[in-house]
């Protein structure tokens, strides 16, 4: 049963709905929501250019969930993750996980191994990305000399994340925690590429989410102030999703060629259609994007499934 756009799940209270995920709190024995765990449900919604499109991509939520679980295993030696259990209600089986409730870092942690997208636009304007100077002559799709940390603000839904220099992260979370987040983000991208390149996929960039375990907020205490003052003493934990077609750019390695946009296994395919003459949409208009045609939906689903199967070596099953 659906209420106000989200599922009604017996034993759980709806807490929040984002662009793609819905959060529920398990109910305790007394019927009140637990404060230590969340049910993280990946929907089939897809977002682009800060809009939630009105056309879902079938099985997308299951692909994201199963791919994240696979990647969590591949990086378990680098950082712990928030997974508590994959035993979830039947209505969301395959696309939900029970996770630990964490105090989340208030910045987007992004790392780039190749230059494209917003990073390319910034480079063309300034010669740098997030304050990091890059060599001259780089083009769309160029491999960077080494992966770089290019964080951004974590804007409210409907607003744009804006790139910030490393100093901006330090201001938000303190120097020690900022350095840990930076180093972990870059290492996760490097590990991802070590694995992906063996399977014929280039991992151009990725966004990861970190939370803190053991911050132990006092009643009424400001989370931002607590993170800045005590975050360095807490344990950093990987949360949300990891190295999926929603959080990363995947390119077929055999077709990689700097100098133009690359073929992709991610939602760039949807972005490209939205900005093509076929959609009739002007992204500067402020109006919501149009519905996706059936062939774009089918091809997008196929790209997500192919990415999962090429990376994991497993057949996708719901």
Please describe what this structure looks like:
There is one protein chain. About 30% of the residues lie in helices and about 25% in strands. The model has no long low-confidence stretch (mean pLDDT about 95). The protein is globular and about 60 Å long. α1 (about 60-75) packs parallel to α7 (about 295-310) and α3 packs across α4 (about 175-195). The longest helix is centred in the middle third of the chain and has 23 residues, at about 175-195. It is built from seven helices and 18 strands. The strands form five sheets. Strands 10, 11, 14, 15, 16, 17 and 18 form a seven-stranded antiparallel beta sheet that branches. A five-stranded antiparallel beta sheet has the order 3-4-5-9-8. β1 (about 1-5) and β2 form a beta hairpin. The chain folds into two domains: about 1-100, Phosphorylase Kinase, domain 1, CATH 3.30.200; about 105-250, D-amino Acid Aminotransferase, Chain A, domain 1 (2-Layer Sandwich). It has about 325 residues and is an alpha+beta fold.
CATH names the topology of the largest domain as D-amino Acid Aminotransferase, Chain A, domain 1
CATH architecture of the largest domain: 2-Layer Sandwich
Uncertain runs are none
CATH class of the largest domain: Alpha Beta
Secondary-structure element series:
EEEEEEEHEEEEHEEEEHHEHEEHH
CATH homologous superfamily (4th level) name of the largest domain: ATP-grasp fold, B domain
Q: Approximately what portion of the residues adopt beta-strand conformation?
A: 25-35%
Shape: globular
How would a textbook summarize the main sheet?
Answer: 7 strands, antiparallel
DSSP helix count?
A: 7
Q: Oligomer, anyone?
A: single chain
Question: SS-based structural class?
Answer: alpha+beta
Domain module count: 2
**Count of strand segments:** 18
Kindly state the percentage of residues in helix. Answer: 25-40%
Overall pLDDT confidence:
94
The value of Rg in angstroms is 20 Å
| Straight-line distance between termini | 20 Å
């Amino acid at each position: 049963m659906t209420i106000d756009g989200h599922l009604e799940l017996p034993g759980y209270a709806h807490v929040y709905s984002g662009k793609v995920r819905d959060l529920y709190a398990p109910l305790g024995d007394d019927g009140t929501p637990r404060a230590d765990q969340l049910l993280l449900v990946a929907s089939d919604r897809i977002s682009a250019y800060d809009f939630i499109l009105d056309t879902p991509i079938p099985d997308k939520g299951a692909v994201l969930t199963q791919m994240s679980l696979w990647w969590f295993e591949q990086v378990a030696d680098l950082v712990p993750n928030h997974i508590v259990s994959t035993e979830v209600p039947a209505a969301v089986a395959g696309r939900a996980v029970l996770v630990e409730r964490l105090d989340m870092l208030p910045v987007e942690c992004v790392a780039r191994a190749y230059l494209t997208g917003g990073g390319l636009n910034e480079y063309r304007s300034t010669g740098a990305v997030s304050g990091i100077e890059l060599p001259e002559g780089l083009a769309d799709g160029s491999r960077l000399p080494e992966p770089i940390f290019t964080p951004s603000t974590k804007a409210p839904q409907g607003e744009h994340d804006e790139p910030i220099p490393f100093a901006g992260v330090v201001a938000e979370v303190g120097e020690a925690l900022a350095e840990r987040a930076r180093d972990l983000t870059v290492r996760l991208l490097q590990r991802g590429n070590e694995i992906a390149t063996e399977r014929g996929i280039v991992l151009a960039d990725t966004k990861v989410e970190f939370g803190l375990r053991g911050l132990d907020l006092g009643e009424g205490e400001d989370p931002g102030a607590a993170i800045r003052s005590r975050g360095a003493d807490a344990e950093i934990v990987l949360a949300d999703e990891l190295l999926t077609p929603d959080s990363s750019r995947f390119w077929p390695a055999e077709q990689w060629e700097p100098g133009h946009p690359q073929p992709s296994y991610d939602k760039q395919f949807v972005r490209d259609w939205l900005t093509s003459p076929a959609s009739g949409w002007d992204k500067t208009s402020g109006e919501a994007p149009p519905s996706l045609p059936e062939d774009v939906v089918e091809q997008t689903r196929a790209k997500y499934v192919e990415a999962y199967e090429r990376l994991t070596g497993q057949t996708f099953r719901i």
